[in-house]
Amino acid sequence: MNSPSTTVIPSAATTETPFKRFVRNFFEDRIAVIGLVTLLSIIVLALLAPFITPQNPYDLANVDLMDSRLAPGSETMDGYVAWLGTDGAGRDLYSAILYGLRISLVVGVLSGIIAATVGMSIGLIAAYAGGKVESVIMRIVDLQLSLPAILVALVLVAALGKGVDKIIFALIVVQWAYYARTVRGSALVERNKEYVEAAKSLGLSKTRIVFRHILPNCLAPIIVVLTVQTAHAISLEATLSFLGVGLPQTEPSLGVLISNGFQYMLSGRYWISFFPGLALLLTIVSINLVGDRIRDVLNPRLEK
Amino acid sequence: MLSYFIRRLGQAVLVIAVMVVLVFFGVNVIGDPIWMLISPEMDQDAIARTASELGLDKPITEQFYHYLKGLVQGDLGRSFVHGEPAIRLILTRMGATMELAVAALLMAIVFGLPLGMYAGLYPNRKSSRWIMAGSILGFSLPTFWVGLMLIMLFSVMMGWLPASGRGPTVEFMGFESSLFTIAGWKHIALPAINLALLKISLIIRLARAGTREAMLMDYVKFARAKGLSHGLIVRVHVLKNIMIPIITVLGLEFGSLVAFSVVTETIFSWPGMGKLLLEAIQRLDRPVIVAYILVVVILFVIINLVVDILYSILDPRVRLGEAKG
């Protein structure tokens, strides 16, 4: 009597894998698709930078000081047109932005992935160990999250000095706690579910249960945090570099480019800061749009 | 109530104690302070002399003892650059930073609250969608770049506001510590907008969510059944109820305003403690860095404490829940 209704629903749901459903839902939102396309184009442009730019802006043989501070659209000594203008050292801004994007993206993504790995492990340990270990870890997480990221990063960089490795380390320190808190939250929920009970009664080891059974089920919120935090890390790196405590001039990320243009701002040469900033803005907004959509799609409460 | 207050005070003191230890060992272990203090031209002899002058050749436990002793007496060492006690330097600059942060906070409420409530009352209007899109943009825009664009637009191109040209910004270009006095609202307008931008987005989101929720509540339906006008319901019943969470979040966000003023103060050459911190970092002025961190941590702890206690007075569920857990 009651069997038809209970058997029909699962069979209808299994015709589509969760991943396919996720992809289909994601593409339903036009703005998110625009964000994704923008983000992918930015990544491709950054990857192809050496092949599609008229000069390598950090090869001194390529750069002519005579070309410095040209307005957008003027022709350089080398004969190509600098569509976005040139900076104070005579570098073509279009080339400098694409090379700068590479550094900004690498720093943001790398620090995000390492912070996610570290944070996830610590969060899982907290959730599974419980008791004193958990409360100590969570107090540290609370303390870390109560301090503004920019302050912690500033002070760390002040102590460590400039450099790509140092800034990545500082970004990891300010980010790991978000992942730890997120993973612990979902792991606490997952821990009491039946499949964990089943795995336990099969006699599987603790590590296996944590990493093979619980972790995959906590990944959805982690992916959301990862997108948001990567955008945040890119912005934070740019801010630190702008303030002159982030990356050195030899590793010119977008923040360094904007910082270099700051001194020309007041004489009306807006483009030296404006275009790198626009590239930074596009990158961050497109990551945030994609992240926003992923959160909506993965949120079970909004599922139709 | 008293036991909640005492427990909360104990936590606050613990956080400060932990930070005092962390700051000391952070500065002394992560970076070698001697390496941070000497100039590259110094020879071995000069390095040793500097180290013993500052007590850096003593064992770390003894250094820690001296640091604690100084801390209790309110002495955090002298600034290497300014030659003044670090703590006094910070405190004299604190006024400017507070002024900026409060102005930004007020601006966030003045702009954010009406926009957010409007978007919450009429979620399907096109204008509301634009408000929400703007708030996403506000979250994404890097503060420092917005600051540059504000200077470019309002100072360089329009020439309306004085954060530009001849004023304080030029002094910053020459890396002079600008000691100008605040010439009224015109000077504070741009930095305050810059600092407020993130918070405006935040309040728009909070106010919108709160308003949408409140409009579905029974007390709003009842007020409507009583025949009260739409404006009166929104102004009295909805506004009052959404203000509790907004005030709480704003209290907690005040700390992050102070932190972010490092960026804004640097761009607009605002002579507050954030700019002082950045100069200290660039010149490796360690006592000033340590003093800044400790002052800000204590400030944060006090703000959090006040907000928590106010909140527990406004909403008894918080303190009952804490007592149980």
Brief rundown of the structure:
With 304 residues, chain A is an all-alpha fold. Chain A has helices at residues 3-13, 18-26, 30-47, 49-52, 93-129, 131-146, 149-160, 164-191, 194-201, 206-217, 219-242, 254-265, 271-298, and strands at 74-75, 81-82. Chain B is flat.
Instruction: Output mean pLDDT of chain A.
Output: 81
Structural Rg of chain B: 24 Å
Number of helices of chain B: 14
Here the CATH topology of chain A equals MetI-like fold
Distance between the termini of chain A: 27 Å
Structure description:
The complex is a heterodimer of chains A (304) and B (325). In chain A, 72% of the residues lie in helices and 1% in strands. With 304 residues, chain A is mainly α. Chain A has one domain (29-58, 86-299): MetI-like fold (Orthogonal Bundle), CATH 1.10.3720.10. A two-stranded antiparallel ribbon of chain A has the order 1-2. In chain A, strand 1 and strand 2 form a beta hairpin. The radius of gyration of chain A is 24 Å and the shape is elongated. The relative contact order of chain A is 0.13. The model of chain A is unreliable at 1-13 (pLDDT under 50). Chain B has 325 residues and is an all-alpha fold. Helix content of chain B is 78%, strand content 0%. Chain B is built from 14 helices and no strands. Chain B has helices at residues 2-30, 33-37, 44-53, 60-72, 86-121, 126-140, 143-157, 168-173, 185-215, 218-225, 230-268, 273-282, 286-314, 316-324. In chain B, helix 7 (143-157) packs across helix 9 (185-215). In chain B, 36% of the residues are buried.
